[in-house]
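Human: I'm a chemist; would you kindly supply sequence and structure tokens for a protein?

Assistant:
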Amino acid sequence: MLKRRNLLALLPVMGCGFTGSRRIGVVPKATAHLFFVSVHEGVKKAAAEFQTEVVWNGPSDETDSARQIQIVDSLIAQKIDGIVISATDERALVGPLERARKVGIPVVIFDSAVAMEDYVSFIATDNHGAGCLAARRLAGLIGGNGDVAMVMQKPGGNSTGLREAGFEETLKGEFAGVRIVARQYSMGDRAKARAVAENILTAQPVLAGVFASSEASSIGTIQALRSRGMGGKLKLVTFDDSEMHRQALKEGTVNLMLVQDPARLGYEAVKAMVEHLRGGTPVRRLDLPVREIT
């Protein structure tokens, strides 16, 4: 069962010369999403390996920036040793994280950027590159000609925003015969994504393909295509991974899955913070590639 409350776990294992446990707050965009469940596995692995106490806490909904701000402020009040965060909104979290820095709490950002420079490391998927790849693959699937749509995530989300921007820029610059005729946000909600996809399919009956830029957007689009018996009748490129993604790929509803490595994101983010707290100099930026699954 997914836990939505604050999880405090001390994982005592041998540390390489590490004297005393440090407390690191890890704040995901959303605790209920499968992507961040996998991130948590990587976080726990790093915590055990580096003898670090981890406070795992985030909003249940990744559009809830107000809740994420509350969590960051609570960690500051607890005098946490470091904050590792995937921001729900790249601007809304600037103030809270700057407050953390003013009292000497270092910040590592993972998955989704924040519009600030005073951080230790930024660990993320190459999201812009992934969006460019999605555009090239979808254009190839439809023969370089036709109308396509985007089922997007939400305004202000840096990681998904970069994917969507890369997708649009690549189609505009490289594929004159492919036109984006519809764009709608799912707001990170599967039911909303399904409704959005249904609306697009109704308004665009000759659609050749769809790019769904997130887990929720992908699942909602898959459900919409299935409900209309349209699986395989247009090309669908999805992002992230779930059992529904995999089944839809097997049945032909999905043509290509672009998949991140969320466990590694969580692991590398905690590793970077631990290295900093030990007096080291972790990499300033680490971009992880996506995998293509067909």
